[in-house]
Predict the structure.
Amino acid sequence: MEHSDLRKEEIIKACEKLYEKYNFKDISIKLISELTSFSRPSIYNYFETKEEIFLALFQKEYEKWYFDIEKIRTENEKLTKEEFAIALAHTIENKERLLKLLSMNMYDLEENSRLERLIEFKRAYGNAVHAIKLCLNKFFKEMSEDEVMDFLYSFFPFMFGIYPYAVVTKKQEKAMKEANIDYKYHSIYEIAYKGIKKLLR
């Protein structure tokens, strides 16, 4: 790995660590720099905005998920719709950071990043979409191209809503109780599995 790549990786890891504790709005480039071995001005040699750092973290999460999806395709000769729903839901259940990033305001994140950074991110996203398409083509030969595209265009927007429904804060719980909303907790896996199963019908 080149020196600049190592520096970028260090910045992304610092952001990743902070994101476990803080929300996007509470994280600054100054705060990120405090967890790296170099100064805040040095960060601007690699990322122009905080949004670009988050976009790079997002890209990394999509790349990890892509490999999990590919494993489903390469390690199985056949899968029923039930088995595929289970397998795909399991790839999502341990991707809490990806789901949390998906629940953010994507418009601002992408708008405040340079085009080259956005292209890198879109490639990682596109690879994940393509990996699922390949799985559908392999396991469900009876699905038409339109049905495959319908699944993809429904599944990816559906993912945006998983995190807010699966991860509820004490404050949100209290508000729902006060508002008389009968909320039942479902895990990331349960929400993903049920959604995938419905989309495969």
Summary: Residues 86 and 181 are 29 Å apart (CA to CA). The chain has a mean pLDDT of 95.
